[in-house]
Amino acid sequence: MKVDTLDTVNVYGCRVSSGRTVNYCWIIANRLTNQAVIVDPAWELATIVDTLHKNGLQLKAVLVTHHHHDHIHLADSVSALYGIPAFISKSERDFYSLSEHQFFTFYDSEILSLAGLAIRPILTPGHTAGSTCFLIGEALFTGDTVFNEGCGMCVGRGASPDQLFASLHRLKEEISDSIKVYPGHRYLTELGADWGTLKKNNIYLNIKDKDTFINFRMRAESIKNAFVFI
Ligand SMILES: [Fe+2]
């Protein structure tokens, strides 16, 4: 398990998998209190419970970046097990209904005070209609909006490369270079790189023209590497 000690939070990375699908769910703990929130719990409940227990963490909330199964899979179970709320953006819940889940919702940039942390959800639609990145302490949790080497696919209802271009542009405007970035999947390089490094190395963050971005994002051959997780 990966642990990063930042100024105000510790970030615990749980690599969890189901078959060939590998996700990273992130536990973010307030360094002063050991209260914590979890982003995108999936696949391995025992791994998550064990990580919380071994590190003496008190889980206060579940945060979900978007509704895809590999990000939402254990949201209800973890919420029920610890008796804590689970959150997703209002636009994601409304667009996809999600009525089988008991989600609390938030708006763009509405500060969530959880685990003694001021959590800022940044709405970054594109991969899905209400995809969200969470800015917590010195860290940004991006789900499938942006990875170290790429960005989310834009397939299925509510996905939009046009919106994803705008969302990535917004992140470039609003996120400081020193912020550490924790996506939901890993392809090549270590997660937790800083935003300045992603801005330099991630080709999707370097395409200035919207139409060029859309054509590149939607190219057919990009699908073949999208599920080669490590
Ligand atoms: Fe996704």
Would you give an account of this structure?
This protein is of the alpha/beta class and 230 residues long. It has one domain (2-218): Metallo-beta-lactamase, Chain A (4-Layer Sandwich). The protein is 25% helix and 29% strand. The strands form 2 sheets. The protein has a 7-stranded mixed beta sheet with strand order 1-2-3-4-5-6-7. Strands 8-9-10-11-12 form a 5-stranded mixed beta sheet, with no helix packed on it. Helix 5 packs across helix 7. The chain is globular, with a radius of gyration of 16 Å. The mean pLDDT is 96. The structure holds fe (ii) ion.
Task: Classify the beta-strand content into a percent band.
Answer: 25-35%
Number of helices: 7
CATH superfamily: Ribonuclease Z/Hydroxyacylglutathione hydrolase-like
* Overall body shape: globular
- List of distinct ligands in this structure: fe (ii) ion
Radius of gyration: 16 Å
